[in-house]
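Table S2 (text version). Query chain:
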Amino acid sequence: MSHSSVHLAGREQGTAIDGVLPLPDPFRLHHGGELHGAKLAWRLTGAAGLPVVIVLGGISAHRQVFDAENERQGWWHEIVGAGRALDTRRCRVLGVDYLGGSGESTRPVAGAEPPSLSSYDQAEALRCLLDHLELPRIATIVGASYGGMVALAFGERHPERVGRLIVISAADRTHPLSTAWRSVQRRTVRFALAHGSGEQGMEIARALAMATYRSGEEFAARFSSPPTRVDGRFEFPVESYLFARGRDYARRYQPESFLCLSESIDLHHVDAARIVVPTSAVAVREDQLVPLEDMRALAARLPNGRLHEISSPHGHDAFLKEAGQLRPILACAYGEC
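Corresponding structure-token output:
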């Protein structure tokens, strides 16, 4: 794809090109139903001629993966950038706002029941985007957490369109204990919405989610100090941390979007035996949400898979922090592994 064709497809913002793609109308969903007037927001950053890498993160990730002008911007700025673990001097980065999320792509209507979205639906939207950008085949999809699920779904459905998958902390199906935690989170948000307190419900749900993202080792190191009295009762250091993060999240994320994409995680189930694309699966031994055994089982079912095991006190959030351990694995994204 030439630079000119991409420029015509979107609007240039410094070194990045942004666009909003209308999807086929109706856009039919894997679990039934359809979206009308659906659109997918995207951003492509990097020099023309370099291999294109799609980068996808958790349900709150968005199309701004990193910012070449401001290295502190972007949801994966600690990992992606010039000279970083995913080196943008060697590839172009394509990011999207998920369908159903809180970005500029189609999102649920406030106050209405969100649609049931599949990781296959996200993969189909990506396929439409590659067609629009005149990219018959890309180098790699790097997906972490929910993004890894979408990468696996894309690899199963469209193996001819991608050269490699790098899947971090995402298996071919969701563990029931993880579904248990998320089910409680969704019930909390629905209860709060029914009582006119959606933001407070999101705060509580996110606080519970944060307790599952990190490891017991990290919490023991950071939050072992005694509680303090706040408004006549004891408040624990870990409690202060969890609800501070919950408040931050609730201010910027739509409750219906959370319900939609949280459910999408638990609906995820692909056929790993049909994913013939070379796949590097990355397991974090301390990950509570995606247990090591599930990642080992995924790798065993993949026809062309390789498992990398890393250790991190950050648990499921290791993909956000472990640049050093991820660097040699992510080098495969542009053929340098």
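Notes on Table S2: Confidence is low (pLDDT under 50) at residues 1-8. The chain has eleven helices and 15 strands.
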